Amino acid sequence: MKAEAVDKIFDIDGRVAIVTGGSRGIGRSIAHGFAAKGAKVVIASRKAEMCDKVVAEIKSDGGDAVAVPTQMSNLNDIAHLVRATVEHYGGIDIVVNNAANALALPFGEITPEGWTKSFDVNLRGPVFLIQEALPYLKESQHASVINVSSAGGFLFSAFTHIYAAAKAGLQSYTRSLAADLAPYNIRVNCIAPGTIDTDMVRSSPPERQESMAKASLLGRAGHPDELIGIALFMASEASSFMTGATINYDGGLVPR
To answer: What is residue 51's three-state secondary structure?
Structure first.
């Protein structure tokens, strides 16, 4: 196989990608990576100014992006995100469900409001975004859904049990939707990151951050840019025979 043929299977040039939580951390890195490979990227996140900043960065690098501020707990916002994407770019090829809420409440102190806040962003929002985008994904010749879950969905997540439960639910939906949507040639896969050096992790006390980083076999936290390759693999024809898979991208955390 020639180099050109290998390059082609990783090609996403011209494809339209929605990236939720795209203003920082993993989402920002994936958005930059997709734009560098020629995708038209929609940056969806809560804060408009942060979305605009990433769009400006991508355009400065020669990429194509637009900001659509979106609160993933708000179903009207999700519907608007899909409408705005189609109005601006004409369709949808890739959905990256990366937005997350890391709310942690000790067991015994769970509130209905906290439970709802976490599940609305971490599970309900992604599922409804896929459903809202479904008519356009069906029209795409290269439809791919990438759910960003967490290694916590596999672990004894004592301190982050609400978050972990929602992320485990997202892994379950990855398998279910892969089965439901396979007849339309829509692939649905999931990345389960371990400890990544993001604002979410840095919000923990320093000693907690250190223990999280050292818990994996590689003994360090990952960098958000290290997620670009696996996301590009799932978005492109490089993973054309893969659907319903959850890949642990965790430095060897879950196997340990």
So the answer is: helix
Q: Could you report the per-residue pLDDT of 31-54, keeping only the tens digit for each?
A: 999 999 999 999 999 999 999 999
pLDDT tens column, 108-150:
888 999 999 999 999 999 999 999 999 999 999 999 999 999 9
Which entry of 136, 163, 173, 249 is annotated as an active-site residue?
163
CB 93 within 8 A of CB 143: yes
Per CATH, the number for 3-246 is 3.40.50.720
**What does the alpha-carbon distance between residue 195 and residue 139 come to, in Å, rounded to a whole number?**
36
* Dihedral angle, C-alpha 162, 230, 19, 168, nearest 10 °: -20
163 tagged catalytic? yes
DSSP states of 116-133 as a string?
Answer: HHHHIIIIIHHHHHHHHH
Nearest to 242 by CA among 178, 184, 183: 178
DSSP class of 64: E
Amino acid in the structure at residue 8:
K
- Per-residue pLDDT reduced to its tens digit, 184-227: 999 999 999 998 987 766 666 777 777 777 888 999 999 999 99
The domain spans of the chain are 3-246
Taking the model in full, what pTM does it have? Answer: 0.94
Query: What is the signed CA dihedral for 139, 143, 146, 147, rounded to 10 degrees?
Result: 30
Residue pair 73/49 in contact (Cβ under 8 Å)? The answer is no
Residue 103 and residue 2: Cα distance in Å, rounded? 48
What is the predicted pLDDT for the residue at 204?
67
